[in-house]
């Protein structure tokens, strides 16, 4: 019990003192996971839209595959990306292994199925006639898409939250493809692993608190946007 | 469908922008991957040495802390440029195959067996190392690294010398690094084999005591090797060689000897520049 109390106090002191390492690691988490989520949204939302709207033979199969991808353990995504990017792997020539870019790629792989599934579900929940109706009312193609996105924003923002929440909190993939390099690819989750194995519990707790606070702040903002004007 | 194409183009553009945004020069040409053991890392030694090397040469060192077995396999695949490892028997085949070249002894320390301070198996009073190991087998629990690391290999060798089949013991494998394994041994009131550096660095957080030490069979030797560029294309051999040479410099060696010595009242590593046994 004592360790937990001391840990919390020391953690708050580190946060209060503006500990440089803590904030640079937190910033890196935000950068890597933010970039991965943004890319997942850019790739996943159009795919989710297609899966939600269009009807084609393999659709159910693809939806099932996406659903499976949602449950993929991050460490498996990490292993796959590691095997692809490591020097002796097929894409080793790009020298991306143990970089932030490699982490973005792995986290992108984790977040994209979530974004696709949430988008498809929210688009499918809209009235089927809505796009035609908007076109009849004189909306251009992009405007139609924008209005649809507005209508589906509950689901789309849930997609962003689910994607970001998944990648900012995962440790296996970041460890495998980033290498947990101090000052370079160390993010909050891998830093927690390191400090725990070095028996620096206070720092581990501080990183955990910052991670929770960061996830909460982002989800709170998104929820605010999502719920504004919602019924 | 032009809209889909437009979206695709937009996606590609954003990917490029974001890719550039989180670039930050960490793929500059002067970078090496050093695959090493968790003991050199968890003790903080490389945190001390690597920044000095980077500041002087501008060569970035990506330290990947894995077990010695994994570090050697990375070298065997050409996935690392240099290795700093501590299992001479496991290193030999890689030297023989020509995957590892330019091997040099960097430093030594020793392994100790740590266990519950009240020593329920009476390992501390055993006359020699095999007897101590047998005492633990008979009267205590043991927590093993189980991760194909140098320490794990040494532990298996200790059982073999004592003629004990580890599979028949109340022995658990963590599959984790030395720090995590020590913590688990402490919580479970079990014995474990640890390198002295990690032990000294973590003992303040552990309810364990050193019970067996000072035996010749517990010597722990660290070698640095460069991955052979003639066998593995893309290895930054020149930079890796510079790092290996840096470790052997008198100034670095003195630094290794002094590393955290004031804090613990003794040095964690003994610097030992010398030719490696049967090295390349």
Which key phrases capture this entry?
heterodimer; A: 231 residues; mainly alpha; 11 helices; 0% strand; globular; B: 280 residues; alpha/beta; eight-stranded mixed beta sheet; 12 helices; 10 strands; disordered C terminus
Layout of secondary structure:
The complex is a heterodimer of chains A (231) and B (280).
Chain A: H1 2-16, H2 20-53, H3 59-70, H4 74-85, H5 100-124, H6 130-136, H7 141-151, H8 153-168, H9 172-178, H10 188-197, H11 201-227
Chain B: H1 2-21, E1 31-36, H2 38-42, H3 45-57, E2 60-65, H4 68-76, E3 82-85, H5 88-96, E4 100-115, H6 129-139, E5 142-144, H7 150-161, E6 171-173, H8 178-187, E7 192-195, H9 196-202, E8 209-212, E9 219-227, H10 237-248, H11 250-258, H12 261-264, E10 270-274
Parallel strand pairs in B: 1-2, 1-3, 5-6
Antiparallel strand pairs in B: 3-9, 4-7, 4-8, 4-9, 4-10
Characterization of the model:
The complex is a heterodimer of chains A (231) and B (280). Chain A is mainly alpha-helical. In chain A, 76% of the residues lie in helices and 0% in strands. The radius of gyration of chain A is 20 Å and the shape is globular. Chain A has helices at residues 2-16, 20-53, 59-70, 74-85, 100-124, 130-136, 141-151, 153-168, 172-178, 188-197, 201-227. Chain A is built from eleven helices and no strands. Chain B has 280 residues and is an alpha/beta fold. Chain B is built from twelve helices and ten strands. Chain B has helices at residues 2-21, 38-42, 45-57, 68-76, 88-96, 129-139, 150-161, 178-187, 196-202, 237-248, 250-258, 261-264; strands at residues 31-36, 60-65, 82-85, 100-115, 142-144, 171-173, 192-195, 209-212, 219-227, 270-274. In chain B, the strands form two sheets. In chain B, strands 1, 2, 3, 4, 7, 8, 9 and 10 form an eight-stranded mixed beta sheet that branches. Chain B has a two-stranded parallel ribbon with strand order 5-6. In chain B, strand 5, helix 7 and strand 6 form a beta-alpha-beta unit. The radius of gyration of chain B is 22 Å and the shape is globular. The model of chain B is unreliable at 19-28 and 274-280 (pLDDT under 50). The A-B interface holds A 31-32, 35, 38-39, 42-43, 46, 50, 86-88, 92-93, 95-101, 104, 141-142, 145, 179-182, 184-185, 196-199, 201 and B 3-4, 7-8, 10-11, 14-15, 18-19, 21-24, 26-27, 33, 38, 42, 44, 47, 62-65, 77-79, 176-180, 183, 201-202, 204-206, 232, 234.
């Amino acid at each position: 019990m004592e360790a937990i109390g001391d840990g919390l106090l020391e953690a708050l002191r580190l946060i209060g003192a503006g500990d440089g390492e803590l904030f640079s690691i937190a910033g890196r988490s935000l950068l890597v996971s933010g970039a991965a989520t943004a890319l997942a949204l850019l790739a996943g939302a159009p795919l989710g839209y297609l899966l939600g709207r269009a009807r084609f033979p393999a659709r159910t199969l693809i939806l099932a595959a996406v659903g499976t991808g949602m449950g993929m353990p991050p460490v498996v995504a990490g292993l796959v990306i590691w095997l692809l990017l490591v020097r002796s792997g097929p894409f080793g020539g790009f020298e991306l292994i143990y970089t932030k870019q490699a982490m973005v790629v792995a986290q992108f792989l984790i977040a994209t199925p979530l974004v696709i599934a949430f988008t498809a579900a929210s688009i499918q929940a809209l009235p089927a006639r809505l796009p035609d109706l908007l076109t009849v009312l004189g909306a251009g193609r992009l405007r139609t898409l924008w209005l649809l996105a507005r209508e589906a924003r509950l689901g789309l923002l849930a997609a962003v939250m689910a994607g970001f929440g998944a990648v900012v909190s995962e440790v296996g993939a970041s460890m495998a493809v980033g290498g947990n390099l101090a000052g370079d690819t160390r993010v909050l989750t891998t830093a927690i692993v390191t400090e725990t194995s070095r028996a620096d519990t206070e720092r581990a707790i501080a990183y955990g608190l910052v991670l929770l606070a960061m996830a909460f702040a982002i989800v709170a903002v998104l929820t605010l946007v999502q719920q504004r004007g919602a019924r | 469908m032009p809209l889909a194409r437009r979206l695709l183009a937009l996606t590609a553009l954003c990917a490029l922008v974001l890719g550039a945004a989180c670039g930050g020069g960490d793929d500059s040409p002067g970078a090496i991957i050093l695959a090493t053991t968790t003991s050199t890392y968890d003790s903080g030694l490389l945190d001390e040495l690597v920044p000095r090397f980077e500041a002087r040469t501008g060569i970035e060192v990506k330290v990947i802390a894995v077990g010695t077995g994994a570090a050697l396999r990375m070298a065997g695949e050409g996935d690392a440029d240099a290795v700093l490892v501590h299992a001479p028997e496991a290193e030999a085949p890689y030297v023989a195959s020509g995957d590892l070249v330019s091997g040099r002894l960097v430093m030594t320390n020793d392994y100790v067996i740590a266990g519950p301070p009240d020593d329920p198996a009476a390992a501390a009073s055993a006359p020699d190392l095999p007897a101590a190991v047998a005492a633990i087998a008979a009267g205590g629990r043991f927590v093993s690294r189980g991760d194909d690391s140098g320490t794990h290999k040494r532990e298996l060798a200790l059982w073999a010398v004592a003629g004990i089949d580890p599979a028949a013991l109340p022995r658990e494998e963590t599959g984790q690094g030395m720090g995590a394994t020590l913590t688990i041994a402490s919580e479970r009131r079990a014995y474990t084999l640890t390198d002295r550096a990690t032990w000294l660095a973590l003992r303040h957080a552990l309810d364990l005591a050193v019970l067996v030490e000072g035996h010749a069979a517990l010597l722990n030797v660290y070698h640095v090797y460069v991955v052979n560029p003639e066998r593995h294309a893309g290895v930054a051999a020149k930079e890796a060689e510079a790092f290996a040479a840096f470790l052997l410099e008198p100034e670095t060696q003195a630094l290794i000897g002094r590393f955290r010595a004031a804090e613990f009242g003794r040095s964690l590593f003994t610097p030992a520049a010398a030719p490696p046994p049967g090295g390349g």
